[in-house]
Amino acid sequence: TITLTLYGQFEISVLDELPCERRIKTYWVAEKRREEVYRLIRPRLDQGEQAFVIYPLIEESEELDLRAATEMAEELASGPFAGLGVGLLHGRMSDPEKREVLDRFRRKELAVLVATTIVEVGLDIPDASVMVIEHADRFGLAQLHQLRGRIGRAGQEALCFAIATPKTEEARRRLEAFSEIEDGFGIAEEDLKIRGPGELLGLAQHGLDTSFRAADLLRDLELMKRAREEAFELIAKQPDHPLVAEFKRRFGEQFELARF
Rounded to two decimals, what is the model's pTM? Predict the structure, then answer.
């Protein structure tokens, strides 16, 4: 997006308002306090609200030390959510199975839906007002924000709990940003700071960009836009200007890749 904007391929219209008033409070909770979270949300479910519990995998992995969504659905149904309907949704289910589970959730036959990121987009459950994201440090920042968008869609106050004890500084920064920033533009900017922009004139999609010796994409974006305007004006008036030839000599191959 930055590349296409800077190189004039399209203009961007900014939509910075939500379709309805969203009131989502987000909390980052350490793994040792997991049981407290489930005890806290039980009364809301008893009052007819619904919840998503998100897991990054559907099978246990010894390497990542993650609990499988299938096992946890059973634990929740027999433990903190006993007596409530608990369903399971993941990508390996057949389409008819997925539809059946979602229909039961919409009809409120299920109070809790344990799911993988299959629910990340395109799902509208108005009464879903609670989300618990297990092992939240395994998700990217944009993905966390997308998941959070599944709750509070009817304008009610919603709660989102990101449960994780991160082992890396980058994961810690992601969770801090997720719990503090509500809007997608702020999330995108913070993600850019954490991951790096990648190469605007190359193949790398994240990390530090060595294309610019001094410019910082976030700090200097307006300056770079002004420089772009000046460059377009120069090319329009003097297409054979020496600077044009020098640019092609230095960056011709990378620029063609960016245009592609």
Answer: 0.76
